[in-house]
Amino acid sequence: MQVFIIVLVAAAILAALIFLHHKHVGFTRLVFLSLVVGIIFGVTLQLLYGTKSEILTDAIDWINIVGNGYISLLQMVIIPLIFVSLVGAFTKLKVAENLRRMAATTVGLLLGTTAIAALVGIASVLIFRLNGAKFLSGAAASSTALDSIKEHQADLKGLTLPQQIVSFLPNNIFADFAGSRASSTIAVVIFSLLIGVAFLRVKQQFPQEAATFARGIEALDRIVNRLVKMILALTPYGIFALITKAAATDSFADMAKLAVFIVAAYAGVLVMFLIHTIILLIARINPVTYYKKAWPALIFAFTSRSSAGTLPLNVRIQNESMGISSTVANFAASLGLTIGQNGCAGLYPAMVAAIIAPTVGINVFSPQFILSLIAVVTISSFGVAGVGGGATFTTLMVLGTLNLPVGILGVLIAIDPIVDMARTALNVNDSILTGLITAKSMGEVDMHKFADRAAVVSREL
């Protein structure tokens, strides 16, 4: 009966959100309202039942039909969207010579900000005096956390960093389209880039056939994006269910024990957002306008903990709200999903490595260690999975390359969902920022549309 009542209340809240949607409440406002209501509802449930209650577990299981269903629908379109977006970026290139400039600027920004994020992560550990892991005294990793680490280690077993990089290359593209490997996403990205380059060469010799191919990709792009629109209309309801689960099941006790790490991680994320803002100012872009338009994607990334799930919204915001050309928007968003994620592949692995290093006698203040860590983190940022758990995989790559033990990581996994929310928002922001800066440098952004307050995703949904 109690489970039924909880689910009934959740259904009533969802019905109210649907009513507001039909009353044409703005998309951004509806997303924010879903976030706030979900937090209040989830915290209330945890206070009433506790995180280990069977009643709460059963109720959340039912509520998350909406949340997990929404994530599943988004993940369904990710691989097709990456393929048509990247290949479409090549078919829409006005001048082939722009490819090198677009690629160099995009990859340079993604990797450059990741290196900065790694440095910020190290600084955060030192400022909060986390190096040496004394704050974890008496804490132990749960069996679930250890199982998670073993699962990720199985994918990396026996592979050096160069071999791990080679493993990103596709050897069976159909298997990678099915997502059979941890590195399937970057394999599809690489395959799409190769198809795009092949298209440009065919275009020079056989323009008629190339035009036919381009029309086919355009047709696929329209269909996939229409499907994306349909799914994104469900965003407020998915966010309510996802944030309710997070607020109800993330233990207050675990957060209290590791509060200093959570604070240090969020401080690092805030510093990186500040650095992103400085980059916007240097590029003479209004940060207030930027964040207002990026807000829906950042909120969804925060609640869903999925950079991959945010990809469709990421692309639409860049193109339709910020005025970035579809070529650059598709290219930057897709590459940003698997290369140079500031949060999961930059800040977090550097923090964990800097915490662990002193436990095996390494001087974390050594310039040699700092430079080595930044370099390893930046290289390892290739191929990170854009879903929950991607940061653990990348961190294990970094720790393995530096010959550092992984036991402490198992303890930190207890509060990983809380930290992952901020990390994922930072990942997505870096991707959008990269698209905007790249487009502005190439003259591929409509700054009048960027400044237009009416040009927002909320009007489209």
From TrEMBL:
Keyword flag Transmembrane: yes
Listed Pfam families: SDF
InterPro entries in the record: Na-dicarboxylate_symporter, Na:dicarbo_symporter_sf
UniProt GO cellular component terms: plasma membrane
Residue spans crossing the bilayer: 6-23, 30-49, 69-90, 102-128, 182-202, 223-243, 258-282, 331-357, 369-387, 393-415
GO molecular-function term, one example from the UniProt record: symporter activity
Protein name: L-cystine uptake protein TcyP
Organism expressing this protein natively: Scardovia inopinata F0304
